[in-house]
Amino acid sequence: MGGAGKRGKDVNPNDISLLSIPKQTKFFVEALRLRTDQEGNKVLEFQDMVDIGKSMNLQTGDFKQFIDKLNAQGILLKKNAKQY
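^ thats the sequence. predicted structure below, dont judge the formating
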């Protein structure tokens, strides 16, 4: 019961701070996808992403650099200064 193998399945999406950065990134990107699917809009404001990250207790260091890295990797596409 409750062994290490279950940790990935039992993640609280409102507190992902104890996960590795790659796993936090995966959960964050999935949350962005869910948000855009729900709203029917594929464009997110930078502040929306900040709010989503805070609601998940995302711990990735400098958030702007984190978003820039996702953009450089092609995970997010920057449309203008504050939209992705």
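The helical segments are 21-39, 46-55, 63-72.
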